[in-house]
């Protein structure tokens, strides 16, 4: 099993992955990101032909803009938690 697979399994087994997902949802809601993305979706639907637009097309149009709207503070917080987890678990494996 590759080291990446082992770490992914540890993230899932420890519950960290779910905690990070919940933290991300909370932070994105707190900063208004979800509302902004909802508006982007509405605008995309209004500009396109609703009857012909698929979910995949909507996703392809909105996703790049939505990713740019994620505040740096949210990215940094989550990346710091992931980095700490990886450092702690990589060190434990090597001991």
From TrEMBL:
It is found in: Nucleus, Nucleoplasm. GO terms for molecular function: transcription coactivator activity. Keywords: Activator, Chromatin regulator, mRNA transport, Nucleus, Protein transport, Transcription, Transcription regulation, Translocation, Transport. Its main location: nucleus. GO terms for biological process: chromatin organization; mRNA export from nucleus; protein transport; transcription elongation by RNA polymerase II. It holds the Pfam family EnY2. InterPro entries: TF_ENY2, TF_EnY2_sf. One of its GO terms (cellular component) is nuclear pore. Belongs to the ENY2 family. HAMAP family: ENY2_Sus1. Involved in mRNA export coupled transcription activation by association with both the TREX-2 and the SAGA complexes. The transcription regulatory histone acetylation (HAT) complex SAGA is a multiprotein complex that activates transcription by remodeling chromatin and mediating histone acetylation and deubiquitination. Within the SAGA complex, participates to a subcomplex that specifically deubiquitinates histones. The SAGA complex is recruited to specific gene promoters by activators, where it is required for transcription. Component of the nuclear pore complex (NPC)-associated TREX-2 complex (transcription and export complex 2). Component of the SAGA transcription coactivator-HAT complex. Within the SAGA complex, participates to a subcomplex of SAGA called the DUB module (deubiquitination module). This is Enhancer of yellow 2 transcription factor.
């Amino acid at each position: 099993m590759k080291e990446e697979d082992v770490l992914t399994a540890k993230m899932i087994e420890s519950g960290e992955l779910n905690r990070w997902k919940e933290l991300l949802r909370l932070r994105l809601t707190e900063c208004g990101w979800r509302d902004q993305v909802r508006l982007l979706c509405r605008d995309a639907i209004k500009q396109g032909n609703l009857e012909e637009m698929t979910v995949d097309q909507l996703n392809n149009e909105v996703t790049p803009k939505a990713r740019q709207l994620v505040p740096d503070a949210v990215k940094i917080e989550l990346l710091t938690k992931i980095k700490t987890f990886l450092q702690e678990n990589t060190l434990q494996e090597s001991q």
